[in-house]
Amino acid sequence: MRSDIEIAQATRLKPITEVAKSIGLTEEDIDLYGKYKAKIHLDVPDRLVDSPNGRLILVTAMTATSAGEGKTVTSIGLAQAFGKMGKRHCLCLREPSLGPTFGIKGGAAGGGYSQVLPMDEINLHFTGDFHAVTTAHNLLASIIDNHILKGNELEIDIGRVEWPRTIDLADRTLRDIVIGLGGRANGIPRQTGFVITAASEIMAILALCDNMEDLRRRLGNITVAYTSEGRRVRAEELKVVGSMLVLLKEAIKPNLVQTVENTPAIVHCGPFGNIAHGCNSVIATRMGLKLGDYCITEAGFASDLGAEKFFDIKCRAAGLKPDAVVIVASVRALKLHGGTAVAEMNTENVEAMLKGCCNLQAHIENIRKFKVPSVVAINRFPRDTDNEIKALKAFCEDLGAKAVVSEVWACGGEGGIEMAQAVIEQMEQHSAQFEPIYPLDVPVKQKIETVAREIYRAEGVDYAAKAEKSIREITAQGLDGLPVCMAKTQLSLTDDKTRLGAPTDWRLQVQDVQIRSGSEFLVVLTGDMMLMPGLPKVPAAEKIDLFPDGKIVGLF
To answer: Cα(475)–Cα(195) distance, rounded to whole angstroms?
Structure first.
């Protein structure tokens, strides 16, 4: 069986101008980045303002495991299935981060016969969007320290500088550092740290802004520090927003690429699903809704993370109304949630799978709370048995959930036609009545506790002293009307990555609540969640290489 990279390299790509033409884009609507990538101009939605919006379909999943669920591959395969059916469609995905690409998770361009291409470029430097975000972020950081050194007119308290540095790699040694050592010529010493680029507030801002002017406004509103009197210092006071905007002027434009089956895909922005809000850009999604009758998008990890934030943050901010949700599950992952050892997950075990179905049930119930119809996509792996598939479908049917088998990894769009038909059927039979899970005009703690109880199934919430203080300050500053962005492990419904299934006998531990006044949400740090990941003992980077003929191996 060929690897993902071998399939990608064997695919005959169409010139991106042809892909653009297939969804009504002209050569004047795009800027070429070689033959197979392009940036879409921001004025395209203005030209299509009178065109009706397509239907918005979100792809989410059950809780992630090492066995794999296949959310991105399902999103791509679903789009390709619409293409096979002759349906006008557009796929909208996030950009991968180099941290997981070289770390434990690998890339995020799909797999098998459901990939976005050119896969190697999308997973690596792509069109430079991540580099632009990294540079704009670090420019602001350097300006802050220079301002402090050169007189500190804003009276910034060096113990309350809130803006870290960033890099698009997983490097735990950079979480907490001291800068400015070596004398005054090297700056004023202070403690700071790095976050991964996908956790940068600038990435979140880029993904949520409406246009260039909104980007400027949001960048200016970033809280970078506090004075000794407790006044917030914003980025616009440092007079650097114009330079940041210049660095981001191309990154704000969505990227057009194609799938293995040459169907269109817009890949733009990459906020993490467990740290940030985990969705592609508002600009890209709005374009997708204008360019296709069906717009397929995804949100990071499972319904408790990406989907909840997609609904409560992105849809609320952008005025989007989702029409359907696909919940991806796999027999292998369910068996792990049911207690099966990793070494035994390829052995038939219907009992363990059904025991693990409590996790899938929680995600089905989560989506129903947002009043959007859903379909369970069973992402079939080669070792899954007919008995396991039959039992899983029966379990879903007992819950009143439509479940279909997806074989898009092995068969591409052809393997997703039943799934696409089921999604269309659900949208036609059940009109979405979408509602966020909480209103904005309630206290911060009530928002956190609503998510904890309703989505995570916690008994309650415990707040560290630091979190209590932060919430009081947020409320005093009038920022308590913002939505909450929960930073939590993706490996469990709880804040403890070792607890599988769907536990209810636990309490959410909130360590801190941080202001993101530019992206206009509050980050709630739970458990031992870090904004800078670390590498595993054997990183994926050790398996990647470049052959003399230019072929890449080991990238997935």
So the answer is: 26
